[in-house]
Design goal:
The protein is of the alpha+beta class. The protein has 16 helices and 13 strands. A hairpin with a 7-residue loop joins strand 8 and strand 9. The longest helix has 33 residues.
């Protein structure tokens, strides 16, 4: 029998225990990967060049406080500003359900100027600009609800006191978020008792070098007014929006720490039990000339093998499930879209499995080191 075969037979001697050990590692690593991917999904900022040149201007007090429309002309005159559009969240109901896609009022002709990554046929974009009762939606929302060009969409107002009757004239794709619906801000401007306010301003800087100075200039322009603003890059805006939910990173890392700690305890206990049952065999190996380091290597290889098998099942399963199916997007109603297991996350999970294999072998290795041949031979099975 080879050394590899000897280690394998020891590892699977108690098949039920070996299977449960592998499954416990697999489930724990699957949960760990899921948490890390979820954290990345919530905190991953846009990284393309178009988003890097975008600036979000909101009320300094909170997102719930609106901004006066007169601010637009002031922002447009600031050096380095290429375009400005109102960007107001509507938050209505579609088909009598609380939908998980955003509905935003914008200046339609500036859509492709500010959100250039959202691609759609030219004739659809022209129809959107020309018809004040029209709208466009992202391809993910269109597929979810089976929407077709020319379909009428009724959005019931919840936050705003109006209902929207919109005609779908375009479907965009390849954007950062292919779920949203965009309609003319004119629909809100012309509603009864309109006070001439918008939710936020989205600004496109002329160049990336203009972003920093433009942010400072916008903040300074309204610093001493009744509607002071907070201008920030799209990346900073997204991260600040997530921070309103609390310290997500600390929560996720705390759960991950508990998962890893529990996994270490379970694996170490399992390995200690398996080695304790083989004290007599290990004593015989000592008696016929095997050195301590060789026995340590046997135990480490067995522990590492079980951890590696669990990692293949857990990490590989997460990679296959999240990267090759739309299960998460469907279950979250497209709230979580880019639920992707990256190579970095896979490497982190595999590193945890490696450390697990090492740590779990420490206690039984020390027990074998302290055991004499005589003590081992006296051990009962």
């Amino acid at each position: 029998m080879t050394i590899g075969g000897f280690i394998l037979r020891n590892a699977v001697r108690n098949k039920r225990r070996a299977l449960l050990s592998i499954l416990s590692v697999a489930v724990s690593l699957f949960l760990l990967v899921t948490l890390l991917v979820g954290l990345r999904e919530l905190t991953q900022p846009p990284s393309d060049q178009d988003s890097a040149a975008r600036i979000v201007v909101r009320n300094k007090i909170s997102l719930g406080n609106l901004l006066p429309r007169r601010q637009r002309t002031i922002i447009e005159k600031i050096p380095g500003v290429a375009a400005v559009t109102p960007f107001t969240w509507f938050g209505g109901k579609f088909r009598d359900e609380e939908v998980m896609f955003g509905q935003f009022a914008i200046e339609p002709k500036l859509l492709q100027t500010i959100f250039g990554e959202a691609k759609m046929p030219a004739e659809q974009f022209e129809a959107f600009v020309a018809d004040p009762t029209s709208c466009i939606v992202g391809i993910k929302t269109a597929e979810k609800y089976g929407l077709k060009i020319g379909e009428l969409m009724k959005i019931q107002g919840t936050f705003w006191p109006i209902d929207l009757n919109l005609k779908l004239v375009g479907i965009y794709a390849d954007g950062i978020d292919d779920r949203n619906l965009f309609f003319h801000h004119r629909q809100l401007d012309e509603m009864p008792n309109n006070t001439g306010e918008v939710g936020t301003w989205w600004v496109k800087a002329a160049t990336l070098e203009d972003v920093g100075p433009a942010v400072q200039a916008i903040n300074a322009a309204f610093a001493n007014t009744t509607a002071a603003v907070r201008a920030e890059t799209e990346r900073a805006f997204q991260l600040s929006f997530i921070s309103m939910w609390g310290n997500i990173k600390m929560l996720v890392f705390s759960i991950c720490s508990v998962v890893v700690f529990t996994l270490v305890l379970v694996s170490a206990s399992t390995m200690s039990m398996a080695v304790r049952e083989r004290f007599r065999e290990l004593a015989i190996l000592k008696a016929i000339g095997f050195q301590r380091r060789e026995l340590f290597a046997f135990i480490l290889a067995e522990s590492f093998g079980l951890a590696a098998a669990g990692a293949v099942l857990g990490v590989g399963g997460a990679w296959g499930l999240f990267n090759h199916t739309d299960l998460v997007a469907t279950a979250s109603q497209n709230f979580l879209v880019l639920f992707e297991v990256t190579p970095r996350i896979m490497a982190q999970a595999c590193l945890v499995a490696t450390l697990l294999g090492i740590v779990a072998s420490i206690a039984p290795s020390l027990s074998v080191a302290r055991m004499s041949v005589v003590q081992g031979l006296k051990t009962l099975d």
